[in-house]
Design brief:
Layout lengths: L1 H24 L2 H4 L16 H26 L11 H11 L23 H4 L3 H8 L1 H34 L11 H17 L5 H30 L10 H16 L1 H4 L6 H6 L6 H29 L17 H32 L9 E2 L8 E2 L1 H18 L2 H31 L3 H22 L8 H30 L4 H9 L4 E11 L8 H9 L1 E13 L11 E5 L5 E8 L11 H17 L9 H14 L1 E4 L4 E4 L4 E4 L6 H14 L17
Parallel strand pairs: 3-4, 3-7, 4-6
Antiparallel strand pairs: 1-2, 5-6, 8-9
Helix pairs in contact: 1-9, 1-13, 3-10, 3-13, 4-7, 4-16, 6-7, 7-8, 7-14, 7-15, 7-16, 7-18, 8-15, 9-13, 9-14, 16-17, 16-18, 21-22
Length: about 700
């Protein structure tokens, strides 16, 4: 009992420490929103009643979307600790056969590590069967997942820009001589520094950023309480929803348009879900409910209380309500907090890019795992520098925070509406939630978020076009990649090498088995890659031990290590099929290194020792000895698409990757002399895509 209590205490301490770290990574964009919400609104002669209505809208937006939707519901729709629209998409695809790419569909019932699902969960619901029957519905679902990811990346571009720019604008209050270009240049320089820090990983970044964010989170509500007491102690009467009704009845169309500004109070909430892989559900819930939510409620109340007594100061609604004695300390904290705010959406962007790359819906960019303890902590150099260029471009191109706010609102609410729709599908297809409760969730949130969407769409000509342009470009890239992958899979399946054909190729008199161990990488799971035919015909050889390695993407977040490598003996002697399985949250790097060779060799030896399928007269001991001898003779890796030219006529050995100089040397040493061929003058190696 004592050990159990110690373990519980340890878990509590761990969650509290993780909750503290989330301040520097997850909540930066959300908790710094007071910097730009009021300045982004196009208010015209506002009154006390207008400000009370605006605060009531912000309070209920934070409560319903932040507390109820994300903390109470969305964080429970994780896929083994991973969050975001693609995590929900993978959940839906795994519980119903609604994936698009053939290689991504139909695994859920056959995988041993998925048997933990109940029989009820495996049987698709009526809605799931509808998606299975309708290719149009499946494509719409994929489009929503892709659009959600693209919008989140747009959020990752705009959050750093508007946060830092709004904070640095504070210089112009005490120093009116500071020009707008100077503010823009300082903001751009700060953001470049933030992006250059990303390569050190989320843990190191959050260790530096969390104290800053904690200072912001706990000082702004103190200033808010001071403002409430001094300017308008009765501000919390605005919690009553009737102030919202009166606001819209009084302002009509203008009140509806102002929703495009109030929606910014919930910016960064999606990062709670998308950054789930970096931390834990419990830590994010603790941090939001104990610090972020109270801080925002009190800060907005203090701002509103000040503005009720100074109705025309909304264009600088944050710095104007800061008392003069603490102006400069708060300016420093605000600037540092704005830098931290950039981190939440940058980390979320890395997470969703990694998920979509592994699920094969995005071109293969480099993804670096920056933590040995937390698989979800990733960094992509290419994406990082693209984000940096776009963020700096937004600052220099738009300049003003109001213009960026117009673009920002479109991204924020579109991502949330997509999350609401996909959460509803998860409730129906996976959780089997009763229809009454599904309706209680779906109807209010669609009405609320739909109202926000209709309001922000009016701002598309005023800057809202930017996130749409970025999202459409990204979506185009993803769909072109998806289309190309489909065509590639169809070609390989139509031209695959069967076991019978392999036997015929090896039976040709000119084909010899040369010493060595060859890893032959392929995307074919049923049959062998067409590249093999070119390889054998042009080289007239095959290594004594050849292992065909197939990467198998599964619609799960992680694959059990016991199911990671699956071995199967193929027909010819010394030829094996190796399937390496992994999910979108797994840290798997297949670079032909010693780790992969050692892991596959261990699994292959175990398979040979335990196998009862003896297809030849070779004993178990002799087969293992042949395997070890081949490994000692040299390991060769063949994968991807390469061209190897031999002969004066540059005959093309197409689509075969010669991975390294070692492989070239092994060909010179074994295959070419056996053919009586000298090594010719021309060798061209050009990688066309990454595996």
């Amino acid at each position: 009992m004592t050990s159990l209590n110690c373990e519980q205490v340890g878990n509590v301490r761990k969650n509290i420490f993780l909750a503290y770290k989330t301040l520097g990574v997850v909540f930066g964009g959300l908790v710094t929103s007071p910097l730009y919400v009021y300045p982004s609104m196009n208010l015209s002669s506002p009154t006390e009643a207008d400000y009370l209505g605006i605060y009531s809208i912000m309070f209920w937006t934070l409560t319903l979307i932040g507390v109820v939707k994300y903390v109470g519901i969305a964080l429970n729709a994780d896929d083994h600790g991973e969050g975001g629209t693609f995590a929900m998409y993978s959940l839906l695809c795994r519980h119903a056969d609604i994936g698009i790419l053939p290689s991504k569909r139909g695994y859920s019932e056959e995988e041993p590590f998925l048997h933990e699902q109940s029989a009820t969960a495996i049987r698709p619901s009526k809605l799931g069967k509808f998606f299975e029957r309708s290719i149009t519905a499946r494509r719409v679902l994929l489009f929503m997942a892709i659009l959600g990811m693209c919008m989140l990346i747009g959020d990752g571009i705009l959050t750093p820009a508007i946060s830092v720019l709004s904070a640095i604008e504070g210089l112009r209050g005490p120093f009116p001589s500071v020009s707008k270009p100077v503010v823009e240049a300082l903001s751009a320089a700060i953001l470049i520094g933030v992006f250059l820090l990303q390569k050190y990983g989320t843990s190191k970044v959050s260790f530096l950023f969390s104290p800053i964010m904690a200072a912001w989170t706990f000082t702004t509500p103190i200033v808010g309480i001071y403002s409430i007491v001094r300017y308008y102690p009765g501000i919390f009467k605005a919690i009553s929803p009737h102030y919202i009704v009166h606001f819209f009845l009084r302002n009509k169309k203008q009140g509806w348009q102002l929703l495009g500004g109030t929606v910014l109070c919930i910016t960064g909430a999606e990062a709670m879900f998308a950054d789930l892989g970096h931390f834990s559900k419990k830590a994010i819930q603790i941090a939001f409910l104990s610090s972020i939510y109270p801080s925002l409620v009190l800060t907005y109340a203090g701002q509103t209380a000040y503005l009720i007594n100074n109705v025309n100061d909304f264009s600088d609604g944050f710095y104007k309500f800061i008392p003069r004695p603490v102006y400069w300390p708060m300016f420093v904290i605000a600037t540092l907090a704005a830098i931290v705010a950039s981190q939440s959406l940058i980390s979320a962007t890395f997470s969703v890019i990694k998920q979509s790359v592994v699920l094969d819906y995005f071109p293969r960019v480099k993804v670096v795992h920056t933590s040995h303890q937390k698989e979800g902590e990733v960094y992509s150099p290419e994406i990082n520098y693209i984000l940096m260029v776009l963020c700096v471009g937004v600052i220099l191109g738009f300049g003003g925070g109001k213009e960026i706010g117009n673009a920002f609102g479109v991204v924020v609410i579109m991502v949330m509406l997509i999350t609401t729709i996909m959460l509803t599908l998860v409730m129906i297809i996976i959780w089997r939630t009763p229809p009454v409760f599904v309706g209680m969730f779906f109807i209010p949130f669609v009405i609320m978020e739909g109202s926000y969407v209709s309001a922000v769409f009016t701002k598309i000509p005023e800057g809202g076009w930017l996130p749409f342009a970025v999202s459409m470009i990204l979506a185009l890239i993803m769909f072109v990649w998806y289309y190309g992958r489909q065509r590639k899979i169809e070609y390989e399946m139509a031209n695959k090498i069967t076991m019978e054909r392999l036997g015929q190729l090896l039976a040709m008199p000119e084909v010899q088995r040369v010493p060595g161990l060859c890893f032959f990488y392929s995307n074919i799971q049923d049959g062998l890659t067409p590249i093999l035919g070119h390889y054998i015909k042009n080289m007239s050889s095959l290594h004594t031990v050849t292992i065909f390695v197939t990467l198998r993407y599964l619609l799960v977040s992680k694959v059990d290590q016991r199911e990671r490598v699956l071995i199967k003996r193929l027909g010819p002697r010394g030829v094996y099929q190796c399937t390496v399985q992994y999910g979108y949250a797994d840290n798997l790097s297949l670079k032909g290194g010693d780790d992969l060779v050692a892991q596959v060799m261990r699994c292959l030896k175990r398979h040979i020792a335990m196998s009862t399928d003896r297809r030849s007269s070779v004993s178990t001991e002799e087969e293992i000895a042949n395997l070890e001898a081949a490994s000692l003779a040299g390991v060769v890796h063949v994968r991807g698409k390469m061209r190897f030219y031999v002969g004066d006529d540059a005959g093309c050995f197409d689509k075969v990757m010669l991975r390294s100089y070692e492989f070239l040397h092994s060909i010179c040493r074994s295959a070419l002399p056996a053919l009586g061929m000298p090594l010719q003058q021309r060798v061209e190696i050009g990688m066309l895509y990454k595996v």
